[in-house]
Amino acid sequence: MLDLGTSFVASVARDPDALAIVDGPVRLTYTEWYGKISAVVAGLDRLGLRPGDRLVTALQNRWEAATLHWACQLAGIVITPVNWRATAQELDFCIGDAEAAAVVYQDASADAVAGSRAAAACRRMSVGVPGADAVPFEQLVAMAAAPVLPRADAEAWSVMLYTSGTTAAPKGVPRRQRAERAAAVAHVAQNLYGQHERTLGVMPLYHTMGVRSLLAMSVIGGTFVCLPRFEPARAVELIAAERITNLYLVPTLYHDLVRHPAFSPRAVAPVKKIGFAGAAMTDGLLKELTAAFRPELFVNHYGSSEIYTFTIDQNAPAKPGSAGRAGINQMVRVVTLGAASPDDVAPVGQEGEIVALLAGDESFEGYWRRPDADAKALRQGWYFTGDTGYVDADGDLFVTGRVDDMIITGGENVSPLEIESCLSLHPAVLEVAVVGLPDERWGRIVTAFVKRRSPVEADELDAYCRSSGLAAYKRPRRFVFVDAIPKSPVGKLLRRRLIAGDYDPEQSHGINKGTAA
Length: 517
Hints:
Layout: H1 4-14, E1 19-23, E2 26-29, H2 30-46, E3 54-58, H3 63-75, E4 78-81, H4 88-98, E5 102-106, H5 110-114, H6 117-120, E6 123-127, E7 135-136, H7 137-142, E8 157-162, E9 172-176, H8 177-190, E10 198-201, H9 208-219, E11 223-226, H10 232-241, E12 246-249, H11 251-258, E13 273-276, H12 283-293, E14 297-302, E15 311-313, E16 322-326, E17 332-335, E18 352-357, H13 371-377, E19 378-379, E20 382-391, E21 397-402, E22 407-409, E23 412-414, H14 416-424, E24 429-439, E25 443-452, H15 458-467, E26 478-481, H16 495-499
Parallel strand pairs: 1-11, 3-4, 3-5, 5-6, 6-7, 10-11, 12-13, 13-14, 25-26
Antiparallel strand pairs: 1-2, 8-9, 14-15, 15-16, 16-21, 17-18, 18-20, 19-20, 20-21, 22-23, 24-25
Helix pairs in contact: 1-3, 2-3, 8-9, 10-11, 11-12
Keywords: Ligase
Family: Belongs to the ATP-dependent AMP-binding enzyme family.
GO molecular function: medium-chain fatty acid-CoA ligase activity
């Protein structure tokens, strides 16, 4: 397997004049971009950074962030991207945990960096922050340098991603260059990307989906069109103007895109292939996207930061809810809940925990200095994902949620996803999230938090669940109408905030309750 630096240099040789990256007025071919990347590597050398050092970045999706990512691959530096919205305390944790040698930030993250004690002890670079007490990125990239030769091999560390940390401190996920390139090649193959495709670079470069989009485009001489932060109107504008051919987004961004007034099928006509990951997609949104885009390919990609691909379904609308079968570099199983061994395989149709083979080419090898997390997740050569699901009679995997999200009500196990998919098809439901709330009699009661598209009441939604064939014990016993469903910055549903009562009831109607028999 090639290292990523050599892979990029090969792309330059293969497609020197192809458009590589677009960010507003910045438009660089592969040859031009290689020159900028080489200048940045020389600048990192002058700052004293060496192979193996960790470089923390708190940047939006801009050409400078993408350039730094490639510069680190060529220099053998481990890029460690974090959310540009991170607080000073969150930066302190990640910088300290990674033992970072340097930090790169921009205006949106400048206050957090200024308040971070750990950042103050690092070498600092700034992007577009005049007068900052840091080395300007603009200074690095402006100085000419000889074309840099790759300094790392395929076994070198490439990137360290930090998990979201919704239940505990974030965990570092270090990944080698060979695993990163294998994931990029698999992404190209499984999404049937052709030469010189163009993608919308909006999934954050601190997220596995964003990194994959960036690397995959280089493999095919494609174009990475930067969108620093998701704005539906701007996304539609870029899709049309830059002739974007494929989209790879979380369901939340698709939801916001197709419902924006600026959206029209004509504007997004260049898009022929769409894919999603990061969360389940409801049946209602699947249908809406199929009608709006009429894509040639509609891929459900199921994976994680730890192992990029678990399974792939290349025709997601044909079998709603199906995550398909194992990717080209992977094997997966469903084991019984609470299984001690990966050999405790659950019967067809029975819900259990999804596990993936650690020997796969796209796999990580363990968390950064977290033996406790390794002991929980890595067993007998398999990665225990913490996700629940089942395999149907056709051999297709269905992901039903997280082990921690399972609702046990009256002794029955209930998966929120099945209920969410059912309610999402009601025309008055814009968004829905289902959790279990404490109850003295039942232990937990199934509760649906609903953002309405149009007027509807709890009894109507309960009747809809009955008519849809949802089992009585699965039907929500309470409906709560809200103004917004809480989500993470990359669109993941934050069920724990709902359980904790951290949400805003719908202002115009308040809270409505319904009881299912």
